[in-house]
Amino acid sequence: MSTIVALATAPMNCAIHIIRISGPQAFEMINKISTTKIKKETFKIWYTTLKDNDQVLDEVLVNTFVGPKTFTGEDLVEINCHGGVIVANLIIKILIKYGCQPAQRGEFSRRALLNKKMDLSKIEAINNLVNAKNELSVKGVIGALLGRVSQSISDFKHELFMIIGQIEVNIDYPEYDDVEQVDAINLKQRLLVLNEKIKKIIDQSKKFLPINKGIKVLIIGKPNVGKSTLLNALCNEQKAIVTDIPGTTRDVIESSINIDNITLNILDTAGIHSTNDFVENLGINKAKELINKVDLVLYLVPANNQQDLELYDLIKDQKHLLVYTKKDLIDQYNDDQIYINAKDNDIQALIDKIKELFYVQEFDNANIDVLQSQRQIGILENVNYLIDNAITNLEKGDTVDLVVADLEFCNLRLNELLGIGSEYDFLDDLFKNFCVGK
């Protein structure tokens, strides 16, 4: 295994940078440039000057950690240098000259996985923590970071292991009286209980995923209904030009904001109507294409023309909110409708409804144990399907031994969630989204 090096802090000028070295030659590498002998002792901090021949590089603090009790499971050295990017890059350049390999994205975390320092669920949680978009996203990571999600997955594996083991003992050693007999009725009941627990995590995770990655919101409506005015009000700045001229917005305008502890990735679109303008038509077609690619559609209709729902068929099958704009033009409101006046920043009713629609209050008041990505959710949904299939086959009259194959495949899929086995092709794609120094 090579010894790798990378900057663990953001590549910008700041107070302090941390350079991370991991691998069997970590101590040898630091001693090639340290004027003080850095001993192979764990949890030590050393003050030293770094030099390359006669060239002084920096005065630094060096933290030392001896494997396997480190993040990566290997010898690990962290250099705390002054926060100039040029200085940090120069130190890394010299270490590479002496034999360190530049770390790839996520390589430190990948080594932690391969050395069994943590499972894949926890590693993905760390990456989500680094990239958290709001406080609620952080809360959603903690359950996985503390190992609660991994423990649930391990519990599922253990239950499947016990079921499969008992079935195989019943088949191979029918004369054993001290082993519980697993018949179709007993097996079906155990699988129903297990699948109910799995479905609960899936449902919670699917509800939380938009909050974690940012709720993708598409604003649509006819020209001059107030789409760009709403975007500007949500962003609290002029992101889009607002005029009385129909067709002012021609392309999709994107903006990401944090508001009331949720992240909204907002797409403002061209007003949808019939036009002979070629460029405007391109924007209208793009708006229509986006309808099925977002988490929520806001369909804006003027409050003084509430019957004008001509575009409703476009969005009726997607999660949506009907929003009546320019509420100052009417005197009476229906309590079950959403009215806003974006021109005066009167949009709180809409924000509250979005939070309700995406269970923000529910998550804000509870411990959140959720899967960290669509990949993880997809795997657990497949496990859920396989167990459902086994239950269906039992109800059709299959004997218990015929469902073992489905249950064994469930265990293999759960291994993917924990990263057990390093042969999975998806690891390269997963780690390329990590920071280099992570």
Automatic annotation (TrEMBL):
Please give one Gene Ontology molecular function term for this protein. Answer: metal ion binding
Localization recorded for this chain is:
Cytoplasm
Q: Where is the TrmE-type G domain?
A: 214-359
Q: Which residues bind Mg(2+)?
A: 228, 249
Q: Cofactor stoichiometry and binding?
A: Binds 1 potassium ion per subunit.
The EC number on file is 3.6.-.-
Q: Which PROSITE patterns match?
A: G_TRME
- Gene Ontology biological-process entries: tRNA methylation; tRNA wobble uridine modification
> Which residues are noted in the entry as (6S)-5-formyl-5,6,7,8-tetrahydrofolate-binding?
20, 78, 117, 438
Q: Name one GO cellular component term.
A: cytosol
InterPro entries assigned: G_TrmE (IPR031168), GTP-bd (IPR006073), GTP-bd_TrmE_N (IPR018948), GTPase_MnmE (IPR004520), MnmE_dom2 (IPR027368), MnmE_helical (IPR025867), P-loop_NTPase (IPR027417), Small_GTP-bd (IPR005225)
Alphabetical keyword list: Cytoplasm, GTP-binding, Hydrolase, Magnesium, Metal-binding, Nucleotide-binding, Potassium, tRNA processing
Determine if Cytoplasm is one of this entry's keywords.
yes
Which cofactors go with this protein? K(+)
Give residues annotated as binding GTP: 224-229, 243-249, 268-271
Residues annotated as binding K(+) are: 224, 243, 245, 248
- Extract the HAMAP family matched here: GTPase_MnmE (MF_00379)
Q: Which family does it belong to?
A: Belongs to the TRAFAC class TrmE-Era-EngA-EngB-Septin-like GTPase superfamily. TrmE GTPase family.
State how it assembles. Homodimer. Heterotetramer of two MnmE and two MnmG subunits.
Q: What does this protein do?
A: Exhibits a very high intrinsic GTPase hydrolysis rate. Involved in the addition of a carboxymethylaminomethyl (cmnm) group at the wobble position (U34) of certain tRNAs, forming tRNA-cmnm(5)s(2)U34.
NCBIfam families given for it? mnmE_trmE_thdF, small_GTP
What is this protein identified as?
tRNA modification GTPase MnmE
Organism (species): Ureaplasma urealyticum
Top-level taxonomy = Bacteria, Bacillati, Mycoplasmatota, Mycoplasmoidales, Mycoplasmoidaceae
Q: Which gene codes for it?
A: mnmE
